[in-house]
Amino acid sequence: MTAAPAPITITAFKWVPAFARGQVRDFRLRWMLKEVGWDYQVELIDGDTLATDAYRAEHPFGQVPLLREEGRPALFETGGIVLDIAERSGRLLPEDEDERALAKCWTYAALNSVEPFLFEVAADHNKLVEAHDNLAAWRDRCFARPAYKEAIAEQYAEYDRSGPKDMGWDEDEFAQQKETQGKGETK
Questions:
Q1: CA triplet 178, 22, 130: central angle to 5 degrees?
Q2: pLDDT-based confidence at 187, cuts 50/70/90?
Q3: Among 6, 67, 89, 102, which is most buried by a count of CB atoms within 10 Å?
Q4: Dihedral sign, CA of 71, 96, 137, 128?
Q5: Of 162, 129, 133, 187, which is closest to residue 16 (Cα–Cα)?
Q6: What CATH number should be reported for the domain whose range is 8-180?
Q7: Which of the four pLDDT bands, split at 50, 70 and 90, describes residue 121?
Q8: What percent of the chain lies above the pLDDT cut of 70?
Q9: Cβ within 8 Å of residue 182, ≥6 positions away
Q10: Which runs of E-coded beta strand occur in the chain?
């Protein structure tokens, strides 16, 4: 494993509605950075920040997350960032060249083939996973990882400190969601 890099900052939303918690993609970076043991800071941003020329100069699609690290270009798109972290840390990818290539294929498949399908069937994705013991076991192993638990708790805690107003949204519109939101694993 390589030494920890220069200070890292990732961007994340100040707040999101209950249905999106645990789904916003900064979570992937939090989890991976915790897995490899690299410290990072989180810059909480709102929708107005996403629309600025300065932010779009770093993230051409104006989304979260963005990973900034001194001496390197700002990185965007979670799949690319996760692979960068895995490669530079010497962790999370197999050492064997063929197995590493296959792991990269599965990374792209997860983002381009699997994830869009799951979003389309989001209401029933738990049924889909539960119908396949291997998928349910894999999900449960992920949820049991200490880095996963730490990353999800961190993301939820940040959302709990803010509200819709911090994003520039109408607070009344989301008041009921904030009252009824649950915490825990996103199953």
A1: 110
A2: very low
A3: 67
A4: positive
A5: 162
A6: 3.40.30.10
A7: low
A8: 86
A9: 18
A10: 8-13, 41-45, 66-69, 75-76
Collapsed DSSP state (helix, strand, coil) of residue 65: coil
Distance CA 64, CA 75 (A): 11
Which residues are paired to 11 by β-bridges?
A: 43
- 103, amino acid identity: A
Nearest-angstrom CA–CA distance, 62 and 59: 5
Query: Which residue would you say has higher pLDDT here, 33 or 116?
Result: 33
Between 26-36 and 146-160, two packed helices, what is the crossing angle to 10 degrees? 140
Q: Give the mean model confidence (pLDDT) for residues 56-67.
A: 96
- Say how far apart CA 65 and CA 68 lie, in whole Å: 10
Residue spans of the domains in the chain: they are 8-180
Two tokens, residue 187: 């199953």
pLDDT at 48 over 60: yes
- Give the C-alpha separation, 155 to 132, whole Å: 29
Q: Which residue has the tokens 């520039």?
A: 168
> pLDDT by residue (tens digit) across 35-44?
999 999 999 9
